Amino acid sequence: MAVKIEFAESAICDLEDIRSYYTEQQVPQVGENFILDIISHIETLADNPEIGRQVPEFAVSSIRELIHAPFRIIYLLNETSIQIIRVWRSERLMQLP
User: Fold this and answer.
1) Is residue 95 included in any domain, yes or no?
2) C-alpha to C-alpha distance for 56 and 43, rounded to whole angstroms
3) Three-class SS string for the chain?
4) Mean pLDDT by 10 residues, the chain (97 residues)
5) Which residue in 7, 56, 61, 91 is a FRET match for 77, CA 20 to 30 A apart?
6) For residues 70 and 87, what is the distance between their CA atoms, to the nearest angstrom?
């Protein structure tokens, strides 16, 4: 059974920041492609919510991540839903909102 996927405000802001960064670098299509690919990757969670690994920085099994290089997609896994929390550059120190 597929679970519902929701986006936290922080994740939406992260995606907007990705778009802005690549637009400022004068390669807006790269940003758009990243966003589309990231969203497609996120959609795989609906049928496979546990495919992401536990986030190493946190000792909480319900906080998980998918790697979509160079980004980490951080999500909170509940019984009936997934909340996308952050879409974060891999080299940055992880911060939850």
Assistant:
1) no
2) 23
3) CCCEEEECHHHHHHHHHHHHHHHHCCCHHHHHHHHHHHHHHHHHHHCCCCCCEECCCCCCCCEEEEEECCEEEEEEECCCEEEEEEEEECCCCCCCC
4) 92 97 96 96 95 90 94 94 93 64
5) 91
6) 10
Instruction: Return the CATH number at 80.
Output: 3.30.2310.20
State the amino acid at position 42 in one-letter form. Answer: I
What single-letter amino acid sits at 58?
F
Residue pair 97/8 in contact by the 8 Å Cβ criterion? yes
Tokens of 5: 């996927």
Residue type for position 37: D
What per-residue confidence (pLDDT) applies to 59? 82
Return the structure tokens found at 89: 């550059």
